[in-house]
Write a structure and sequence with these properties.
The structure holds 2 protein chains of 2 kinds.
Chain A (H helix, E strand, L loop, with lengths): L1 H19 L4 H21 L25 H32 L12
Helix pairs in contact in A: 1-2, 2-3
Chain B lengths: L10 H14 L6 H28 L9 E4 L10 E4 L1 H21 L10 H17 L3 H19 L5 H32 L4 H7 L8 H19 L8 H7 L2 H25 L12 H21 L3 H26 L3 H28 L4 H14 L6 H5 L5 H4 L2 H18 L5 H15 L6 H30 L10 H19 L1 H16 L1 H10 L12
Antiparallel strand pairs in B: 1-2
Helix pairs in contact in B: 1-2, 1-4, 2-3, 3-4, 3-10, 3-13, 3-20, 4-5, 4-10, 5-6, 6-8, 6-9, 7-22, 8-10, 9-12, 10-12, 10-13, 11-12, 11-19, 12-13, 12-19, 13-17, 13-18, 13-20, 13-21, 17-19, 17-20, 18-19
């Protein structure tokens, strides 16, 4: 399972970085989304991978912490998802505004002269 | 509400948050009311900051301590998130308030009419800044960073236009990439140490397992990269000049403190996590910070000399001051001792932030109407060795010219001279005091001495000289050589600039007190155990209803 997750994060990051360096705004925004997915998976994996273990403990009584998974990274991922969602939406608006104002989807606002 | 806790500590975050949210309820027709609310909120924020600073300086917290804590949700450290107020964060909160008030007044002259929700965004920017200064937890630092960045995206685009949107696109993209790095760094540190609290992390560094230490280093380096992007270190600074030039004048002035947020976090975390008590990790990153800081100073110097307009030049001046602070941090971290140097750097931080903010506020009135274009034309004429047709007019001594300049423009030119002197580091103003103490501390201390400090001193002096040349060139063309009608300047624009220059003068007059304060700050920075033990021992407030549900 570790290998699969590591590969997934690696592929997402590599594609994200490649797209981020492309000259079209749409590629940049998809690259940033892929990167943020990779980061979310990465944060999640930092709580150690444990199949079948719930993160929330029952109320009261004796609790054996070894039967539960670390809830904190899941909370962090949730926050990171919300923030990256909001900023991606904002970026999309700026992207559309730039497209409207400059008439091109190049990140520099003008096509490179050939 | 937690009874008995020190609620004043959270005030600098809550005041702008509530004011900003309140203003969202009203539409753009109530601008005057919004300006009033914003000014009251910024004033309250400044007052709260000053009250906190006095307490941090005089042992005004529980048990005669200089460090105050506020446990959010009344959870003990390291389980809950804690706000920590010590001398350094108090200084930054006050600096934020000092810059915020003039900027809001300036924006009231017209900028806040250019688009939607300007004042609310400003308030959220202040909230994010204060939160980043006060938090003692890595993840809430990320959240506050995102708050201030989201507000700054909106502010940068305020007013619209093609140039702004293009610069905004680059600015947002690079900051989103920086946030990704930040998150990877935080996750790595959490994975290796199991904590997000800065104080707990600092305590764990000594006993850290050998196999986990490289992971923490990698995490800290990635996280540091995110802050260095904000601080504008070379070669991560190419976004900065165009973003600062494109943003509206009051926003650019607030951006002067945004580079300092990166510097603040690096100061805080470097000394806390990689300070003297970090075992095998002591001094991690010091060399990179020193080298990067000096490279930034050189890049900024070249940028100043190569710039044509005041906006681009001011952005490079910001780069130089940010590079200076990073280099000092690196050198002091490397040496493990550099109290005098650090105290000078903190003084310089205050002085250069105020002066750079002032420069951005001056930029717009100075280049209004033909002012900016005239400066450009004069420069091109110089470069080509041409005389612009009106030689006879130039030869005319025009004794009455002085009278044509209204009082405000004269006041602005004096303010400009104050800003130039403070930024170039010439006596008698505050920039000189700061740079002098940095150099005195660096060369005087045996620990920080050596070839590095001499190289740093040379760069610092050359950078100051270049700043002087560049800014004087613009100043002469705008205030002296501009024989056209002086641009109209309103009192609301000139007032804040004059207030900021008065602050710089006051900072110089009170240099001894301020330096005593920054020295105490530097001493606490060098002794992270004070902060760590205080934070970890901070007791939850007993007997509150919410503590045990």
């Amino acid at each position: 399972m570790e290998a699969v997750l590591a590969l997934a994060i690696g592929v997402l990051t590599a594609s994200g970085v490649w797209l981020l360096l492309r000259p079209r705004t749409f590629q940049v925004i998809i690259g940033l989304s892929l990167l943020s997915h990779a980061v979310n998976l990465f944060i999640f994996s930092m709580g150690r991978l444990r199949p079948g273990a719930p993160p929330i403990m029952p109320d009261g009584g004796f609790v054996d912490p070894s039967r539960y998974t670390d809830p904190l990274p899941q909370a962090l991922v949730l926050t990171a998802i919300v923030i990256s969602f909001a900023t991606t939406a904002l970026f999309l608006v700026i992207m559309i505004a730039a497209r409207g104002l400059t008439g091109t989807d190049h990140v520099d606002g003008r096509e490179r002269e050939q | 509400m937690i009874p008995g806790a020190d609620h004043l500590i959270i005030a600098p975050i809550l005041i702008p948050f509530l004011a900003g949210a309140l203003m969202l309820l009203y539409d753009e027709r109530r601008r005057r009311m919004k300006l009033g609310v914003a000014l009251v909120a910024a004033g309250l924020m400044l007052l709260a900051g000053i009250a906190l600073l006095r307490r941090a300086n005089g042992g005004g917290f529980a048990g005669g301590s200089d460090v105050g804590y506020y446990l959010l949700g009344n959870w003990a450290v390291p389980w809950g998130i804690v706000l920590v107020l010590d001398r350094l964060s108090a200084l930054m909160v006050v600096l934020n308030g000092l810059l915020a008030l003039p900027v809001l007044v300036y924006a009231g002259a017209g900028w806040h009419r250019q688009g939607q929700h300007f004042m609310s965004l400003m308030m959220f920017l202040f909230m994010g800044l204060n939160g980043a200064f006060l938090t003692g937890d890595l993840f809430s630092l990320f959240v506050f960073f995102e708050v201030l960045l989201a507000a700054s995206y909106g502010l940068l685009l305020h007013g619209g236009g093609q140039f702004r949107v293009r610069a905004g696109l680059h600015y947002v993209a690079i900051n989103l990439a920086g946030s990704v790095l930040f998150l990877i760094g935080v996750a790595l540190i959490y994975g290796a140490t199991g904590t997000l609290s800065m104080a707990h992390l600092s305590q764990l560094m000594v006993t850290l397992d050998g196999s986990h230490r490289p992971l923490v280093h990698a995490g800290a380096a990635l996280m540091g990269l995110a802050f260095l992007v904000k601080a504008g270190i070379w070669p991560l600074s190419f976004w900065l000049p165009s973003a600062y030039m494109a943003s509206p004048a009051p926003v650019a002035a607030m951006f002067a403190i945004m580079t300092k947020v990166g510097v603040y976090i690096l100061l805080r975390l470097s000394f806390l996590v990689f300070g003297a008590s970090a075992g095998a990790s002591t001094g991690f990153g010091g060399v990179a910070l020193a080298a990067g800081g000096m490279a930034t100073m050189i890049y900024g110097t070249l940028g100043i000399l190569g710039s044509q307009g005041l906006g681009r030049m001011a952005a490079h001046v910001v780069l130089v001051s940010s590079g200076t602070l990073l280099a000092v941090t690196g050198i002091a971290l490397n040496a493990g001792d550099g109290v005098t140097m650090l105290s000078g750097a903190l003084y310089y931080l205050v002085s250069s932030t105020l002066a750079a903010g002032m420069l951005f506020l001056l930029f717009e009135p100075m280049s209004r109407d033909e002012g900016g274009i005239a400066a450009m034309l004069a420069l091109t004429a110089d470069a080509w060795g041409l005389e612009p047709g009106e030689t006879e007019e130039d030869a005319d001594p025009a004794p009455g010219l002085q009278l044509n300049i209204p009082g405000l423009m004269t006041a602005l030119s004096v303010a400009y001279a104050v800003a130039v002197l403070a930024l170039a580091g010439l006596p008698p103003l505050s920039g000189f005091v700061g740079k002098f103490v940095i150099l005195m501390g660096g060369i005087g201390d045996a620990a920080t001495g050596g070839t590095v400090i001499w190289a740093f001193a040379a760069i610092l002096i050359v950078a100051g000289f270049a700043t002087l040349i560049g800014l004087m060139r613009i100043g002469i063309q705008t205030f002296w050589a501009n024989d056209g009608e002086p641009p109209p300047v309103s009192v609301l624009e000139a007032g804040p600039v004059i207030a900021l220059s008065a602050m710089l003068v006051l900072l110089t007059v009170q240099a001894e007190d301020v330096l005593r304060y920054t020295r105490a700050t530097a001493e606490t920075l060098e002794m992270p155990t004070l902060y760590v033990e205080g934070v970890l021992a901070a007791p939850p407030v007993a007997g509150s209803g919410e503590a045990d549900p």
